[in-house]
DNA sequence: TGGGGTTAT
DNA sequence: ATAACCC
């Protein structure tokens, strides 16, 4: 395909190439996936749990468990009853409060960002890193006679033979070395183990990271791409094809990855829309040009609680106050301010699998200003707003039965970017008195303290 | 199925 | 505001 790639492929003198990342579309991506993350965090918190079968419980579910427990038959998302039956010695810890998991999760992302700033989070326990530039720099440091001494770190998918005359192989091997350094750093600095997959795009990196499973890594060389994607037993195993799309494809008689590869593009586009159809059909060939997008700080903060039954307004208000109190702490830490608040509910016969309803509204500016100060009561006005949203969704004069409440702060804005001026800054106690520790502290773009004696 | 997250429509 | 996707 790409002439630049073909030209580079047989070139023995890597250092003579100019603009290596611009004239080639070949990327090196790593997917880093922590082993049973919540269980690992719990074992670090309490080392006595280390050699015992451990499960992390949320409500009546074991959401994850360590490998001791897995050996004894416990699976992720298993009912507590079933898990105890399978494994009576199972130790359970409650994992409904995500605070420590979230904090550790961001420590991992920040550690990876030290290698290369382009890090995309996927959930709390997975990260993608684009290593293309880093690999290119290391290649340029190598003398041409050192190329023949480059070695792989970890497994090579499908036991494929390495060709050291193939520059793409060399790049991926250097990627595997960086992946090993990342896993070493995660273990040495944070005490965490995990898997890594190195490949030429996000899809393949993610698929290959799971091939050797706990605490190992695998690199995929281009010649084994089809082997990997065709090794999947069902289209639903392709990240990007979820429950709904899989059902839709099954209705068309598409069950295997090969079925999807060979299915009529025209018909698929008519059924799923051109965008989704073209995207997933490319995925079925292992093609994925989506970039690694730096996640940066979160776009939203939310807290939720599920329960068997909530059927009165007072009950709902109490739950909302609990959720809100935790959220206000988190928002205070972040340093930015949310400009929108949302309330989410789930009603009892949750007809749909994901039957949630929500109402949102802007947060009044006088309330925004009080956020993060701790000096003023922000609970009262926020609860008032949330209860109005609640009554907008739920007719409290009629019987109701809710099984979930969630509060979300979103539309986060840095405090000083445009509208806030100098006078405003000096008149707002929160900004001069609140400690904004951490890397998310706002920057004074147009304002400098030196300007004001 | 929990308690989170994201983007597209 | 919802619906899809991810963990």
Automatic annotation (TrEMBL):
GO molecular function (one): metal ion binding
Assigned keywords, A-Z: DNA damage, DNA repair, DNA replication, DNA synthesis, DNA-binding, DNA-directed DNA polymerase, Magnesium, Manganese, Metal-binding, Mutator protein, Nucleotidyltransferase, Nucleus, Schiff base, Transferase, Ubl conjugation
Cofactor entry: Mg(2+); Mn(2+)
Catalytic activity reported: DNA(n) + a 2'-deoxyribonucleoside 5'-triphosphate = DNA(n+1) + diphosphate
Entry keyword Cell membrane: no
Subunit note: Interacts with POLH. Interacts with REV1. Interacts with ubiquitin.
Family from the record: Belongs to the DNA polymerase type-Y family.
Annotated protein name in UniProt: DNA polymerase iota
Organism: Mandrillus leucophaeus (Drill)
High-level lineage: Eukaryota, Metazoa, Chordata, Craniata, Vertebrata
Whole-protein residues included: 1 to 453 of 714
């Amino acid at each position: 395909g790409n002439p630049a790639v073909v030209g580079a492929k047989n070139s023995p003198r890597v250092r003579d190439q100019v603009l290596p990342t611009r004239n080639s579309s070949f990327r090196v991506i790593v997917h880093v996936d922590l082993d049973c993350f919540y269980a690992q965090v719990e074992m670090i918190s309490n080392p006595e749990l280390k050699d015992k079968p451990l499960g992390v419980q949320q409500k009546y579910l074991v959401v994850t468990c360590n490998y001791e427990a897995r050996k004894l038959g416990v699976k992720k998302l298993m009912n507590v009853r079933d898990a105890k039956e399978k494994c009576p010695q199972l130790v359970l810890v409650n994992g409904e409060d995500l605070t420590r998991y979230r904090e550790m999760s961001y420590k991992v992302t920040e550690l990876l960002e030290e290698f290369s700033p382009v890090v995309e989070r996927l959930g709390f326990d997975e990260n993608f890193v684009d290593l293309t530039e880093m690999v290119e720099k290391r290649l340029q440091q190598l003398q041409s006679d050192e190329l023949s001494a480059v070695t792989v770190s970890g497994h090579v998918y499908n036991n494929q033979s390495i060709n050291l005359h193939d520059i793409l192989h060399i790049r991926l091997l250097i990627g595997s070395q960086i992946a090993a350094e990342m896993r070493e750093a995660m273990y040495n600095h944070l005490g965490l183990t995990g898997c890594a997959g190195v490949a030429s795009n996000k899809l393949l990196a993610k698929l290959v990271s799971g091939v050797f499973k706990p605490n190992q890594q695998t690199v995929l060389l281009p010649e084994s791409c089809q082997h990997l994607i065709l090794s999947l037993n069902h289209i639903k195993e392709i990240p990007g094809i979820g429950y709904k799309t899989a059902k839709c494809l099954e209705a068309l008689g598409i069950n295997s990855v090969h079925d999807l590869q060979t299915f009529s593009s025209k018909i698929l586009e008519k059924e799923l829309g051109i965008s989704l159809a073209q995207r997933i059909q490319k995925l079925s060939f292992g093609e994925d040009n989506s970039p690694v997008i730096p996640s940066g700080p979160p776009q939203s903060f939310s807290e939720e609680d599920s329960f068997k039954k909530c059927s009165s307004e007072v009950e709902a208000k109490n739950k909302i106050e609990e959720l809100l109190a935790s959220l206000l702490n988190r928002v205070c830490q972040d340093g930015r301010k949310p400009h929108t608040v949302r309330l989410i509910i789930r009603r009892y016969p949750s007809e749909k699998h994901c039957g949630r309803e929500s109402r949102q509204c802007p947060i009044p500016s006088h309330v925004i200003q009080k956020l993060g100060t701790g000096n003023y009561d922000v609970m009262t006005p926020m609860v008032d707003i949330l209860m109005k949203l609640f009554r907008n969704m739920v007719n409290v004069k009629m019987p109701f039965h809710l099984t979930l409440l969630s509060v979300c702060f979103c539309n986060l804005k840095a405090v000083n970017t445009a509208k806030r001026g100098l006078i405003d800054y000096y008149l707002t106690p929160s900004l001069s008195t609140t400690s904004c520790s951490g890397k998310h502290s706002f920057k004074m773009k147009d304002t400098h303290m030196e300007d004001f004696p």
